[in-house]
Give the backbone structure.
Amino acid sequence: MSEPGRVLPARRRGLADEVADRVRDAIFGGTYPPGAQLREVELSEALGVSRGPVREALLKLEREGLVRSEWHRGALVTTLSDVDVAELDSLRSALEQLAVQLVVASASDADLAAIDEVVERMVRARDEHEMVRCDIDFHDAVYAASGHRRLIEAWRAIRSQVYLFLLTRIGVNSEGYLASIPAEHRRLAEALRARDGERALDLFAAHRGQAFDVLTEKRLPGS
C-alpha cells in the first residue's frame, strides 16, 4: 500500500507489451485463428520469455477483446458471437459517421493524401491478410484525419475487435475480396476528397454492410 502523499514507482512492463504485440500480430496474420488455444508454455518457449510476461500479455489482449479465457480451456482467440458482430457493427457505424462528417468538413490535403496512400498500398496487397491490414490502416487514416482526439481514442478501443471482425469475414468467404476491396476504398477516398458528405456516408455504410452481411448470412439457420 502506498503512503499518503507518495506515489510508488511504476513497474516496467515493456516485455509484456512486446509479447502482446507479437501474439497480436500472429493472430492478425492468421497463425492463431478464432477459437485457437493460446498456451502459456508454448508461447513462452516460442518467444524465449518466462510465463509471467506471457500471462500479462494475454490479459492485455483480453482487455482488447482479442482473447477470452475459459476455466476449462485457458486462453482462446475470441470467436465473435452474433451479439459481438451486431454490437461491433452498430458502434463502428456511430463512430464512423462522425469521423466521415469531420473529414469532409475540415481534413487537410495532407490528411486526404494519407488516406489515398493506403488505397495505393491496397492495390499491391498479396493476400487476404495483407488486405485486411490495409483495410484497418485505411480506417486509421480516416480517424486520424478527423482531428478529434476522443473519437480516435474510441476507435482505438475497438480497433483490434474490428480487425478480428474482418478476419472472421474473410474466413467465412473471401471470394472476390482481393479484386473488389481496392476499388471500393478508392470510391470512399474520392468521396472524402470531393467533400461530398452524403455520398461518403452512403458509401461507408455500404462498405460496412458488406462485411456484416457475409457474417450474418453465414449464421442463418441452414446456411
